[in-house]
DNA sequence: ATCTAACCGTGGTATGACCACTGGTATCAT
DNA sequence: ATGATACCAGTGGTCATACCACGGTTAGAT
């Protein structure tokens, strides 16, 4: 490092460093020069071209990988990929981690999505969708006595329902909040399942929904779904207070998470 | 901290390196040990504690910063922050880069959200929500002849509608897709606005929606919204061909989108 | 008391080296 | 010829160290 400095200043056109790299890659992606499946240059070479260190480039790539814009594969390379839902799931996990009250609110999103999806499904669903729904319905019946598997089957049915709607966006959003729904509902299933006659109700109600979709009767399907959620909410509410219906062998109430006291309320 | 080694323990159990760091921080966030506003340890120290190099730690922090989980401030430190919607905007920017067909589909998400939100609004909305809606409605009237400002006012009204629903999740999702909706609708506004009598229709229809919410009549509100979207879609479709025609009330025609042909089976 | 400047801690970047994984190729045994 | 094995080159993954740039604090000068 003698007196002379200067030399390379090529990246001077705006921002340099991390920001610049992200901006550059975003540009490449939006302009279409980089499309899904393309393989980026090796880190060493790319970093050299952009005039940044490899570390900075890696930071940018990691960041992009976090939102799913690229996929970094050890020993292979970095390939452009389309952000998919799993990414959004990650986001929501972090986003909602700190606002516990939202966990309950996530149900509103689920209802909104499923309601519209079921209407779409009544118009668009094809045989493949019917088959999948039937399959998931069968799973519900099979696993009706197993809280964990049953809850999973239940979710899978509703997932198939949304899928039948044929809207990629709805499917994406639904998948995004799926992990969070699991978080608060899977456990309650254990309590709900104990209610007398609930098993028959669950099976019967899901079947009716399925049949309404097959019949392409949006009105009935929508109405059924409304009741489905209302009843579900009712059960969950009751399960929250005390041991739901009659005989819960163990008052495992255990004060669900909650603990949310530090409700900051930071609006902007 | 002299000759003793120890260390090794933490990362030995599961993943080490980048993945481990992200997992660790996620755990800290989800468990509540780190809450919004908290300041993380300096990079050098934190990296030492986690048994990774500073570079790896930085990659993890950059990734988390990309989704808004933390905010890195030069010369200050890294502070925990709650991901807000602007982050999702970034995500969708990348997401839509490669799949342009989703832009149309985004409308389905909007419909789903607004439909449920308006029902919630009819139950939950308070005076503040009414005031905001009224204000936005006024803006629509004011800017009715300006395509750009008018489109913006239109959006703001619907935004207030969702807000009135009082569901943070719905609001977040709606904001997330807002930028994408703008992208495809603002321009069409220029064509739509030319249709004879459209201005009166827009004003009148929005006002009716507003009144339905104030009246807390979910059924009417929902029905109005349905027609609102159908007519809007109809206009946009026609505007696609040519500059739409005159008679708007000429049977909003059922001809709903449908197009459901490629309802393929994308399972995973 | 106020302003200025130096200082220190923080993140930001650069370099070079080495490790670990993947995929293809060459080699070998059958 | 065929199959399995060993090898090798290229790629991402990690590490360590040094230095730069920014922000807030503090000691000094005015």
UniProtKB/TrEMBL annotation, chains A, B:
Originating species: Paracoccus onubensis
Record's CDD domains? WHTH_GntR
What are the HTH gntR-type domain coordinates in residue numbering? 15-83
Fetch the PROSITE patterns from UniProt. Answer: HTH_GNTR
State the name under which the record lists this protein. Answer: FadR family transcriptional regulator
Which Gene Ontology molecular-function terms are recorded? DNA binding; DNA-binding transcription factor activity
InterPro entries linked? GntR_C, TF_FadR/GntR_C, Tscrpt_reg_HTH_GntR, WH-like_DNA-bd_sf, WH_DNA-bd_sf
Q: Which domain of life is it from?
A: Bacteria
PANTHER family reported for this sequence: TRANSCRIPTIONAL REGULATOR, GNTR FAMILY, UXU OPERON TRANSCRIPTIONAL REGULATOR
Could you list this entry's UniProt keywords, alphabetically sorted.
DNA-binding, Transcription, Transcription regulation
């Amino acid at each position: 490092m003698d007196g002379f400095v200067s030399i390379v200043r090529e990246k001077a056109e705006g921002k340099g460093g991390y920001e610049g790299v992200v901006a550059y890659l975003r540009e490449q992606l939006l302009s279409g020069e980089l499309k899904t499946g393309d393989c980026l240059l090796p880190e060493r070479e790319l970093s050299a071209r952009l005039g940044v260190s490899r570390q900075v480039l890696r930071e940018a790539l990691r960041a992009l990988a976090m939102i799913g814009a690229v996929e970094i594969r050890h020993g292979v390379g970095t390939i452009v990929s389309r952000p998919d839902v799993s990414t959004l799931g990650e986001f929501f996990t972090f986003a909602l981690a700190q606002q516990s009250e939202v966990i309950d609110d996530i149900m509103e999103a689920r209802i909104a999505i499923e309601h519209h999806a079921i209407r779409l499904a009544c118009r668009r669903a094809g045989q493949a969708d019917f088959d999948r729904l039937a399959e998931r319905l069968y799973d519900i019946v099979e696993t009706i006595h197993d809280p964990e598997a049953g809850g999973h089957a239940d979710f899978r049915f509703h997932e198939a329902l949304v899928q039948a709607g044929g809207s990629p966006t709805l499917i994406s959003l639904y998948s995004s909040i799926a992990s969070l729904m699991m978080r608060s509902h899977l456990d309650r299933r254990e309590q709900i399942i104990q209610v007398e006659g609930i098993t028959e109700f669950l099976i019967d109600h899901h079947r009716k929904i399925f049949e309404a979709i097959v019949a392409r009767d949006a009105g009935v399907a929508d109405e059924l779904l409304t009741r489905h959620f209302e009843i579900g909410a009712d059960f969950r509410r009751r399960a929250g207070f005390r041991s739901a219906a009659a005989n819960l062998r163990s008052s495992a109430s255990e004060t669900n998470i909650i603990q949310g006291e530090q409700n900051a309320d930071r609006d902007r």
